[in-house]
Structures are given as C-alpha cells and as structure tokens.
From TrEMBL:
It comes from Streptomyces cinnabarinus. This is DUF1330 domain-containing protein. InterPro entries: Dimeric_a/b-barrel, DUF1330. Residues 2-96 form the DUF1330 domain. It holds the Pfam family DUF1330. Gene3D superfamilies: 3.30.70.100. It comes from the Bacteria. Coiled coil: none annotated.
Length: 117
C-alpha cells in the first residue's frame, strides 16, 4: 500500500545548506522507491483554513520503505542541513487500500456512537 512522507515547512531561512540538502535528497529516497509528488509549492491554493509555508510530499511503495528511508544513514546525514534552517512538521502516513470505501468508516463511526448522536 502506498505511503507518503509529508512535510509542512513554515519558517524558512534561506541558506546554502538548504540548496545542498535539495541537491542530495533524491539520492537518499530513490533506493527505497521514493519519488517527489509535490516539492515546495508556494502557489498552493488554500481553500479552507490557514496554511502558511510550503508542502513537500514524497511517495513510497509502502510504509516500510518510508520508515527505512527516514531512518537511513544517508538521509540522517543530510537532515541537519534542512532542520537548522527550516521549521516545520514531517509525517509518514500510509495511504488507503485500493477499493477503499469511506462508507465503511462512516458506519464504524455510527456504530461507535451507540445512540450518542
């Protein structure tokens, strides 16, 4: 099942180390089947709420590969190049299975309410 590394980058202080990080990151995730899906889009359209900053999204074949990449020596070596100059949040999340039906989730929610609605 596809998994994603998603970063919400807010406070960015331009620095040469960020350029080096960007130059080197692809080589760290390619061995795990990763690829950029979204990279630092500043022109995103916020349609509800408040979304300051940029978003980066990397897709992986599965959550195992995403975790292996995150913990890899190659990525951990370059991570400080980013974290010293960019504040934000990063998550690893598994996608939904092929054929996912949200009605099943809604029914489970209704079943859990047991008349509390």
């Amino acid at each position: 099942m596809t998994a994603y590394a998603i970063a919400h980058l807010r406070e960015i202080t331009p620095h040469a180390e960020i350029a080096e990080y960007i130059e080197r990151i692809t080589a760290t995730f390619e061995p795990y089947g990763g690829r950029f899906l979204v990279h630092g889009v500043r022109e995103q359209e916020t349609v509800e709420g408040y979304w300051p900053g940029d978003v980066v999204m990397i897709g992986f074949p599965g959550i195992g590969q995403a975790r292996e990449w995150w913990g890899s020596a190659a990525y951990q070596e370059i991570a400080p190049l980013r974290s010293r100059h960019i504040k934000g949040d990063i998550i690893l999340v598994e996608g939904v299975a092929e054929g996912y039906d949200p009605a099943t989730t809604a029914q489970a929610l209704r079943d859990g309410l047991d008349g509390d609605a």
